[in-house]
Specification:
The chain is an alpha+beta fold and 333 residues long. Helix content is 46%, strand content 10%. The protein has ten helices and six strands. Helix 1 packs antiparallel against helix 4, helix 2 packs antiparallel against helix 3 and helix 5 packs parallel to helix 8. The termini are far apart.
């Protein structure tokens, strides 16, 4: 098996319920694919339901050897067809001769059937759903998938693990991060479709087909010279295009509805009347003459000394005393 498809047990960028000291939310917040740069030692970020030495019973080496030999023969045969001048470019109904394209496609279809037989014979049938995400969205998509696998909708499916490619060491315009969601048997259509529906309805992602780990092991990708399809399943081979659209539309409708509810809640909170106590306190705070103990507005006006008009009466009293003494003197005389 290709090492890229094996969950790494001793690796800081891998999370599992029993092998990690932090929870899944902390993990996806700490290790974001857009922020982790691959320096050759950290190509992937992994999440797995549970950590175990191996949950596969497969003759991986035997399957890879046999499949590689088959792919080599098919590649050579496709090249022969391409260079054979006796094979017409277009088919002929009159002679029954097949075109180069038809013969190539026949070889490629036969190879797909043989690869399935090899996989099942050796028990090497595991694989993954593929998702490609741009750098500005990969963090959100990955976090959603990782949490779902840990304790959300994906946790109730056969999906066992997921990984996401980290960022390239050097800036790459238009770089797409691949996300893989692993399933134990890519040829178990019902289980594969179950995972597919969850990814569409609960995550709204764009799926790019199902790839066998055997295909990865033998280097079969979309650019392989054999022209053999690089995925076991294409989306529309599993669900009608109309159902795929409906599932994704339902997801986005739900997201929009949730955002609207949150927006209305925020608006109600902002428009709700403030408690009277809050206003009073604000008024007191704004009053520059209020006392420190908050009782400034209850203070009585200060009483004026020496008379109601506040003037000092000392001089007038002295004059009155002099007049009184003068009067007494006249009486005595």
């Amino acid at each position: 098996m290709a090492s890229d498809d094996i969950f790494p047990e001793e690796y800081p960028y891998a999370w599992s319920p029993t092998g990690s000291s932090i929870n899944i939310q902390e993990f996806v917040s700490k290790y974001k694919p857009s922020m982790v740069q691959n320096d050759g030692t950290r190509p992937w970020i992994w999440v797995r339901k549970e950590l175990s030495p191996s949950d596969r019973v497969a003759e991986e080496h035997g399957a890879t050897k046999e499949a590689s030999e088959l792919l080599q023969r098919v590649t050579e045969r496709v090249e022969e067809i391409k260079n054979d001048s006796s094979i017409p470019v277009r088919s002929s109904k009159k002679t029954g001769a097949k075109s180069k394209k038809e013969l190539r496609e026949q070889e490629q279809a036969n190879a797909t059937v043989r690869l399935k037989e090899i996989s099942q014979k050796h028990g090497y049938v595991c694989g993954k759903w593929l998702i490609f995400a741009p750098s500005d969205r990969v963090d959100a998509i990955w976090a959603s998938v990782a949490r779902s696998l840990s304790s959300g909708p994906l946790a109730s499916t056969v999906a066992s693990a997921a990984k996401v490619a980290t960022s390239p060491e050097h800036e790459t315009p238009g770089y797409q991060h691949v996300i893989c969601i692993y399933v134990p048997d890519v040829y178990d259509r019902d289980n594969v479709v179950e995972v597919m529906k969850v990814l569409l309805r609960q995550h709204g992602v764009n799926l790019s087909g199902v790839k066998s780990d055997l295909y990865t092991s033998i280097g079969l990708d979309s650019k392989h010279p054999s022209g053999v399809p690089s995925t076991v399943w294409k989306n529309t081979a599993l669900l009608p295009d109309s159902e795929i659209r409906e599932l994704k539309e339902a997801y986005f409708a739900e997201v929009t509805s949730t955002k609207n509810v949150d927006k209305r809640t925020d608006q109600k909170r902002e428009s709700a009347p403030r408690k009277p106590g809050h206003r009073k306190r604000k008024a007191e705070t704004d009053d520059p003459f209020a006392s420190d103990d908050g009782e400034g507005d209850k203070a009585e006006p200060q009483k004026q000394p020496h008379g109601s008009d506040g003037r000092n009466n000392t001089t007038e009293q002295a004059q009155e005393n002099k007049r009184s003494q003068a009067k007494k003197s006249r009486i005595s005389s």
